[in-house]
Amino acid sequence: MRRVFSGALAGALALTAAVLTAPAAGAATNGPIHFGQGYTINPDGTGLTGPNPNRSLYSDYLAFSPDGSRTLYRGQNDAGDETKLMLDNPAFTAPTELLNSTEAGKSFLSKARWSPDGEQIAFRAADESGSRQIGLIAPDGSGLSWLVDEPRIDVGSVSWLPDSSGVVYTATETSTEPSRLCQVRVADSAKSCVPLPDEGANGENFYDNAEVSPDGESVLLSLNTQQVEGQNTVYDVVKVSIDGTGFVNLSQNEADQSTSFAWSPDGSTIAFSRYQGLWTIGADGTGKVRISENSADNIAWQPAAA
């Protein structure tokens, strides 16, 4: 098992600087947005299809391979069953199990993401001791290894740097201490973390669901921004720079929750959920538009076929 330990401050700063200048992957073309239980829609709001009967109720954390030809998601046969990482086609007609929690020796598996070069899949896991891990596995099921093992990794946070050199995630020591945005390098497990802004409701910061932009310069996160007694906690889609600065609240919900979102493959637009449906907004925070009134959890934006 790979173990990750904090290095000296100089080493951490050097790692951060190296990551910030990492070359970005080539620009992709935007295909349809997938959401809910097998709905798809074009980015302009046309061409709504679904639901797809091949999508199980117990499947979530949908993602796509870099070329858009394959899907990746977490599945269960039934509530309470072992969790699995599944590969499939975009129509969900040929599911193949990549890894299950029993085989991995974990109590559950959760969010997984394909590396931009297509070579590896990073995923979240946890064991019965309460420790949480980020694992790596090849799309053919070989090379299972553990990149990060620490108790406070947030459940939905795993995303890749655009050059596939490292994985980004959030970790929270306690609800009243600053959340951290962390990067771990695949080659040698070197780790660097920066604090995230203290912008959560009532002095508590629950950042999660990190999604790195295609150019590697920004990160989308969910954050509890409002808490009113007797009402639901408001979660917003927020954006920070890769170094944790430059906080922007993109969704600015009044009494709603946004915990599912995705970058467009070309990085120009963000799709996100609200109770009232599926919305898109420019990466600069302008042009917010509702494109569907259907329930919009489990969002993934498919790259168009070359």
From TrEMBL:
<keyword id="KW-0732">Signal</keyword>
<dbReference type="Pfam" id="PF07676">
    <property type="entry name" value="PD40"/>
</dbReference>
<dbReference type="InterPro" id="IPR011659">
    <property type="entry name" value="WD40"/>
</dbReference>
<feature type="signal peptide">
    <location>
        <begin position="1"/>
        <end position="27"/>
    </location>
</feature>
<comment type="similarity">
    <text>Belongs to the TolB family.</text>
</comment>
<dbReference type="InterPro" id="IPR011042">
    <property type="entry name" value="6-blade_b-propeller_TolB-like"/>
</dbReference>
<protein>
    <recommendedName>
        <fullName>Dipeptidylpeptidase IV N-terminal domain-containing protein</fullName>
    </recommendedName>
</protein>
